[in-house]
Amino acid sequence: MTRTSPGPTVGVVGGGQLGRMLGEAAAPLGVELVVADPTPDCPATPVVRDQLVGGFEDESTFRALAERADVLTFEIELADPDVLERVAEETDTPVHPAPETLRLIQDKLVQKRRLAAAGVPVPDFRGVDTAAELRAACEELGYPAMLKARTGGYDGRGNVPVSGPDEVEAAMDDIAGPAMVEEMVDFERELAVMGCLGDGERDTFPVTETIHREEILRESVAPARASEAVSERAREVALDVLDVMEGRGVFGVELFQTADDEILLNEIAPRPHNSGHWTIEGCHTSQFEQHIRAVLGEPLGTTELRDPTVSANILGDVDERRTATMAGEESVFATERAHLHWYGKREVYPLRKMGHVTMTGDDCGELLADLRELRDGLTFRSD
C-alpha cells in the first residue's frame, strides 16, 4: 500500500488498552487509527486520530467508522458481527478478521464444536441449559468440572467450577443462561500462542507460558519453560486453529499442557491478546504491529524473539472503585530492561487491568522473580 500523508486508516471497534497499543504500533508505520467505543475519552484516545462514541452494536457508529477507514477490525469480542457484516457490505469496507470468525468465537460451545470437528484437540465438553443437564453431564465427565457461559465471559467472569453434585444448582444460577461444561484439565502449565494470518501467510510468535490466579492472567514467560517437543506441538495446534479462522489478523490461542504433555485447546481470541503483550519489547515485530500489517494486507513481520522476556499485569489492588492513582513506579524506571505500560484508565477497581510491566534478559526464572518484586511494589491504595 502506497504511503501518503495522512496514511491508510484502520477503524477499530473498541478503544481500550488493546486499541491504545494498536495506535502506538500503527503510528511508526504511517497508519492512522480511528476507534469506536461507548466510553468517552477511552484509553486509546491519546494515541489515535479520533474516537467515535457509540456502542458495540450501534450500526450508525459502525457505518461512520467504516466511512473513515480503509479497513475495519475490532479489539473486543462484544462487537456485533451481524452489524459489522452489514456495514462492510454497504460501504465496501473489508473487515478483518472476518465477521464469521467473530461469530464463531463469541459462542464458546459453537467454537468448541467447530474446532473439535476440524481435529483440534479440546477437553471433553457438553452443552447444558438446565441444572438437570449439568448434573447428567458431570456424571459423564466427572467432578470437578468447569461450567462456562457460552457468551460474554472473560478474565474468569462467566466461569464457575463445579466440585460436586451439591453445587450444580448454584452454578447454573450463577451463569444464568446457556452454558457449556468441560472436564477439569489436570494441566502441567498453561500456554499461549499468538497466531498470525496475513495475505496468504501464516505464522506464530514463540510459545508463551501463562500464569493465572483466580483465572486472571498474572504473568507471561517467553519462551515457555516447556520442552522443545511440547512447544512444537503447541505451535502445531495453533496453526491448526488458524486453518479454521477466516480473515486476516492476530489470534490469541490459549492452550493446556497436560500432565502427560498433551496439548489441548482452551480458548481463542480473534485479536491481540494479553498473553502477547510481552512481544512489544521481546520480539522484532510486536503482536500489535503484526495485527496492523495483517489487516491492511501488508507482508507480515518476523516473529523472531529478541531476548527471553517476562511480563506481569498491574491489577487493581483496591477494595472498591476509586480514581486511578498509582504509586511505586519509580522502582520500574530505575530498573534496567524494565518497561512500564500504563493504560490510561481513569478509575481502578478490584483486579482491573491497569497496565503491565515487562523485563528482558537472559534467564526467565531470575527475570520472573525480579519482575514480581517490581510489580508487587506498584499500588493504588492510598492507606
Automatic annotation (TrEMBL):
<keyword id="KW-0658">Purine biosynthesis</keyword>
<comment type="function">
    <text>Catalyzes the ATP-dependent conversion of 5-aminoimidazole ribonucleotide (AIR) and HCO(3)- to N5-carboxyaminoimidazole ribonucleotide (N5-CAIR).</text>
</comment>
<dbReference type="InterPro" id="IPR016185">
    <property type="entry name" value="PreATP-grasp_dom_sf"/>
</dbReference>
<comment type="pathway">
    <text>Purine metabolism; IMP biosynthesis via de novo pathway; 5-amino-1-(5-phospho-D-ribosyl)imidazole-4-carboxylate from 5-amino-1-(5-phospho-D-ribosyl)imidazole (N5-CAIR route): step 1/2.</text>
</comment>
<feature type="binding site">
    <location>
        <position position="212"/>
    </location>
    <ligand>
        <name>ATP</name>
    </ligand>
</feature>
<dbReference type="InterPro" id="IPR005875">
    <property type="entry name" value="PurK"/>
</dbReference>
<keyword id="KW-0460">Magnesium</keyword>
<keyword id="KW-0436">Ligase</keyword>
<feature type="domain" description="ATP-grasp">
    <location>
        <begin position="112"/>
        <end position="296"/>
    </location>
</feature>
<dbReference type="Pfam" id="PF02222">
    <property type="entry name" value="ATP-grasp"/>
</dbReference>
<feature type="binding site">
    <location>
        <position position="108"/>
    </location>
    <ligand>
        <name>ATP</name>
    </ligand>
</feature>
<dbReference type="InterPro" id="IPR011761">
    <property type="entry name" value="ATP-grasp"/>
</dbReference>
<feature type="binding site">
    <location>
        <position position="148"/>
    </location>
    <ligand>
        <name>ATP</name>
    </ligand>
</feature>
<comment type="function">
    <text>Catalyzes the ATP-dependent conversion of 5-aminoimidazole ribonucleotide (AIR) and HCO(3)(-) to N5-carboxyaminoimidazole ribonucleotide (N5-CAIR).</text>
</comment>
<feature type="binding site">
    <location>
        <begin position="266"/>
        <end position="267"/>
    </location>
    <ligand>
        <name>ATP</name>
    </ligand>
</feature>
<comment type="similarity">
    <text>Belongs to the PurK/PurT family.</text>
</comment>
<dbReference type="Pfam" id="PF22660">
    <property type="entry name" value="RS_preATP-grasp-like"/>
</dbReference>
<dbReference type="InterPro" id="IPR013815">
    <property type="entry name" value="ATP_grasp_subdomain_1"/>
</dbReference>
<keyword id="KW-0547">Nucleotide-binding</keyword>
<comment type="subunit">
    <text>Homodimer.</text>
</comment>
<protein>
    <recommendedName>
        <fullName>N5-carboxyaminoimidazole ribonucleotide synthase</fullName>
        <ecNumber>6.3.4.18</ecNumber>
    </recommendedName>
</protein>
<keyword id="KW-0067">ATP-binding</keyword>
<dbReference type="Pfam" id="PF17769">
    <property type="entry name" value="PurK_C"/>
</dbReference>
<dbReference type="InterPro" id="IPR003135">
    <property type="entry name" value="ATP-grasp_carboxylate-amine"/>
</dbReference>
<dbReference type="GO" id="GO:0034028">
    <property type="term" value="F:5-(carboxyamino)imidazole ribonucleotide synthase activity"/>
</dbReference>
<feature type="binding site">
    <location>
        <position position="190"/>
    </location>
    <ligand>
        <name>ATP</name>
    </ligand>
</feature>
<dbReference type="InterPro" id="IPR054350">
    <property type="entry name" value="PurT/PurK_preATP-grasp"/>
</dbReference>
<dbReference type="InterPro" id="IPR011054">
    <property type="entry name" value="Rudment_hybrid_motif"/>
</dbReference>
<feature type="binding site">
    <location>
        <begin position="182"/>
        <end position="185"/>
    </location>
    <ligand>
        <name>ATP</name>
    </ligand>
</feature>
<dbReference type="InterPro" id="IPR040686">
    <property type="entry name" value="PurK_C"/>
</dbReference>
